[in-house]
Design brief:
By secondary structure, this protein is an alpha/beta fold. It contains 6 helices and 5 strands, in the order E-H-H-E-H-H-E-H-H-E-E. The chain has a single domain, classed as 3-Layer(aba) Sandwich (Rossmann fold), CATH 3.40.50.1010. Helix 3 runs antiparallel to helix 4.
Length: 128
């Protein structure tokens, strides 16, 4: 099974692991599980970090390096992912989340999310 992480879960994995559910923590630490992060995650982190919000301390480069070091695979955005966004119902307005849902569909992955709205998509999405 392939799992794609939403941005909140990527950040929690490296900055707030105590915020992960026990099930998700076990899944992320299992070397037999194909855990993926997306270019979308890194892009979203970079944008939020550039806003210099005091409550946001994640660094895009560091998160990417840590995810790769943890054995996570990087899923890059391609044209098929971008085009698939147009097939999604208008459940969520966030373009990052919509692109992650589309990537999960196209790449035959289950999107793990902490966002209840994202979990409403008729797609391979699991609330975590």
């Amino acid at each position: 099974m392939r799992y794609l992480l939403d941005t909140n879960l990527v950040i929690r994995a490296f900055y707030e692991p105590e915020m992960l559910s026990p099930e998700t923590a076990t899944l992320l630490s299992d070397p037999a599980v194909d855990v993926r992060f997306s270019t979308v995650n890194i892009w979203e982190i970079a944008i939020k970090a550039a806003l210099h919000r005091p409550d946001f301390t994640a660094d895009a480069r560091a998160v990417r390096d840590e995810a790769l070091a943890a054995g996570f695979s990087e899923l890059v955005v391609d044209g098929a992912h971008a085009a698939a966004v147009g097939d999604l119902p208008p459940i969520h307005a966030d373009p990052f989340d919509r692109l992650l849902v589309a990537q999960a569909i196209v790449s035959d992955s289950v999107l793990l999310t902490s966002d209840r709205t994202v979990a409403r998509y008729p797609a391979p999405v699991r609330l975590s």
